[in-house]
């Protein structure tokens, strides 16, 4: 994840995270030394007068967490976190490629990790984990308030080893503890097939993640289905937690011929606008299907197609991941995963905390055997053909 170049991919061995358009590399903080301030004075008083000798390292970590917690509360920022030296080590090890996952895509929520999707033929599917379930503990430790990068790293580990996780079911039932064996899991970028919308054949394309090269897979799949007679397109972004910013721009450029796709604003990095590039396909009736786990780069694509009237958005309000983070190493150890800017959609709107509201509301009921969201998307597309 270091020096990821732009926005880092939210995929970690089968665990897709909606925690950014991600992480802008890893920098090192430059901190003032030898300054007397309230913090250092308070620490000195504690160290000299507290009735038990305090642990200096724990005091440091508590102070940093307190500052980050204040930012999170003051600015309603769900995505800034402090990584202790131990947590940073776990995070870096889990990103090295030596570890495997269980086959989930997840989003960070207050109680832990909400399951966005369960990949087929994976340990998670065999354990009967369902979309909407919330993982609240890993190996007996609560992950409430823990950065998704850290909690997913705790779930990962060597292939063949086991991890115990506590699940709060989507239906509100009693929490259950399950043991899952880790395995090598590959998250596909795109899957597509022909479907019927009324009497017409249409391209139904599930787009799972904005990983490196995913836009090419998306274009290839759409063009293949169009050659096979598809007259319209459904792009299913449900459970897509995002990924690389450049992939969001390139995926949008499949549909948007020219114009602004997204812009970013940062106090330290300034303002940048990103335009559509390349040659777009010929416009045709298109529906984008979303849910509350559609996040980050997936929200950029959704908003771009809506802004240029290239698609009807069907589903539920999206996640609202409108900020990006940078992991900044601290010289004394540990790191800050700090929100340093926000992105704005093609029409200049921030989705931070709000998400994107669909044109047509539709929600799948996990208790039925049908996919009500997709059924509604096909109905809307049939009317447009």
Task: Compile the SSE list and pairings.
Layout: E1 11-12, E2 15-17, E3 23-28, H1 38-49, H2 56-74, E4 81-83, H3 85-94, E5 104-109, E6 112-118, H4 123-126, E7 134-138, E8 141-142, H5 148-155, E9 162-168, E10 176-181, E11 190-197, E12 200-207, H6 214-227, E13 232-236, H7 245-252, E14 260-266, E15 270-275, E16 286-290, H8 297-307, E17 312-315, E18 323-329, E19 335-345, E20 360-361, H9 372-384
Parallel strand pairs: 2-5, 3-18, 12-13, 13-16, 16-17, 17-20
Antiparallel strand pairs: 1-2, 4-19, 5-6, 6-7, 7-8, 7-9, 9-10, 11-12, 14-15, 14-19, 18-19
Account of the 3D structure:
The protein has nine helices and 20 strands. With 385 residues, it is an alpha/beta fold. The protein has a domain of 175 residues: 2-enoyl-CoA Hydratase, Chain A, domain 1 (Alpha-Beta Complex). Strands 1, 2, 5, 6, 7, 8, 9 and 10 form an eight-stranded mixed β-sheet that branches. A hairpin with a 2-residue loop joins strand 5 and strand 6. Helix 3 crosses helix 5.
